[in-house]
Write a structure and sequence with these properties.
Helix content: 10-25%
CATH topology: VC0467-like
Strand content: 25-35%
Structural class: alpha+beta
Shape: globular
Number of strands: 10
Number of domains: 1
Radius of gyration: 17 Å
CATH superfamily: VC0467-like
CATH class: Alpha Beta
Largest sheet: 10 strands, mixed
Amino acid sequence: MPLERSLASSLLLAMPGMDDPQFSRTAVLLCQHDGEGAMGIILNRRTDVLLGELLEQLGIEGASRDILARSVLWGGPVQGDRGFVLHDDPRPWSSTLRFGPFGLTSSREILHALARGEGPERFLVLIGHAGWGGEQLEGELTQNAWLTVPASESLVFDTESEALWTEAAGQIGVDMARMADYSGHA
């Protein structure tokens, strides 16, 4: 199934029947989607790591208590040793992928700025990402594995990660608790 339109800056919500434990009940923000494949970040899986621990490992000092106490999210199973900062800051940060109102930055520059109190006001720090090969995501969409929802800045940055899956579905009138945990085709 060829790509009809890019879903970059959309949320993918795993349908209740998703049997892959890595993606069960996840909300994935698609950062890139084209004929070569797709890349996204899971927004509703916290790690046991706090941003303060990560900054300490990187030798970045001086961050406020609020910054130090923030949770680092698990962005997905690909490149689990690579960190990303998702933000809505329009400044030209190096190593940034821009999509819709969002930026995904992988440089240390943004972490130093966050520690100094000069970084984006709204941000999430993630380790790893999710990826799909060419037409793989389209196949999963055809199999009803994912529900697509427009991603807004308020939904992404202001919704508690534990509530994001159900809140995002509610934005389009879907109650995930009432969805069947299997899919079929007529």
